[in-house]
Amino acid sequence: MKHEALLNLFEEKPGEFISGEEISRQLLISRSAVWKQINKLRELGYEFEAISRVGYRISGTPDLLNAMEIQMALKTRRFGRKVKIIETTSSTQEDAARLAEEGAAEGTLVIANEQTAGRGRQGRKFYSPRGKGIWMTLLLRPEKPLPYTPQLTLLSGVAVCRAIRQLTGVEAGIKWPNDLLVNGRKICGILLESAAEDELVRYCLAGIGIDANVEPEDYPEELRSIATSLKAEAGNKINRNQLIAAIMNEFEMLYDLYCTEGFQPIAALWEALSVSLGREVRTKSRLGPVTGIARGLDESGALIVEQSSGERLVVFSGEIEL
Ligand code: BTN
């Protein structure tokens, strides 16, 4: 393929300008074909500096998912040590479920460059465009009864939030239970699904979707005012491999802490990163809509909402509006 030959040419002369004439001579193609091939590489995420009468130079390479780069940045023993990278899939939740059923180890990570049927909480679709985000599922095998899984939902939010803050400096906060927001806009969604037998968890799938390098104009109309990306907030492109590794590092550390010390230290970290606490929230109870101030978490991970009557209500699942 011509664009691959063109890439080889640039790789032979790193950092150098190559004239259109030389490319055309080396690849035996016309000058307009050179321009077409340059544009083809641009579509694949390569960036070029072009100076008339001098030529072209590569000024940026695409941020490709790379298992080796992830592994080199890991400090973990288990999380992310087995990685499966898929170019396009319907949903990494399905791939990870298949691996879990086949006996894959805790910490196995499935990452996709694109999802065609990304799933969100409460049956919603999750926008997962090609090459622009982190769409991944981590397999957990906690030795816990099923009612404990909401705690893992909160733990997942804390792990991702801390990794984002460390690596990008973007001050993401957590909206209960585990959406990550920056200036009121969603930057990451987390979906925790569990398979259980006789009330004992067989495995959990922590699905994490982060809008890393999505451009404002990429978003479908309905998401434009409510979503944002790390690139838009940080002002620079995010290296997905490094962020994935940072999330694995945080996740394993917090998960081990949870397994030895229980939920209390995780709840304290969650509360410190929360954008929900102390604010008025609207939610639904069995008796209808409820408004109140979010006060904290109870020991199960449910949100305590204080109504104006002083009555305290515990919200176990669902959504809140800030
Ligand atoms: C939400 O915001 O409601 C949760 C979104 C979770 C999205 C992630 S992306 C990787 C994994 N695969 C999916 O289909 N969903 C999760």
Automatic annotation (TrEMBL):
Residue ranges of DNA binding: 20-39
Domain of life: Bacteria
Binding locations of biotin: Q115, R119, G120, R121, K186
Pfam families xref list: BPL_C, BPL_LplA_LipB, HTH_11
EC nos: 6.3.4.15
Molecular function as annotated in GO: biotin--[biotin carboxyl-carrier protein] ligase activity
UniProt keyword list: ATP-binding, Biotin, DNA-binding, Ligase, Nucleotide-binding, Repressor, Transcription, Transcription regulation
Keyword Oxidoreductase belongs to the record: no
Annotated ranges, domain BPL/LPL catalytic: 68-259
SUPFAM superfamilies: C-terminal domain of transcriptional repressors, Class II aaRS and biotin synthetases, Winged helix' DNA-binding domain
Top enzyme category: ligase
Catalytic activity: biotin + L-lysyl-[protein] + ATP = N(6)-biotinyl-L-lysyl-[protein] + AMP + diphosphate + H(+)
Known role: Acts both as a biotin--[acetyl-CoA-carboxylase] ligase and a repressor.
Family in the record: Belongs to the biotin--protein ligase family.
Name assigned to this protein: Bifunctional ligase/repressor BirA
Taxonomy of the source species: Bacteria, Bacillati, Bacillota, Bacilli, Bacillales
The gene coding this protein: birA
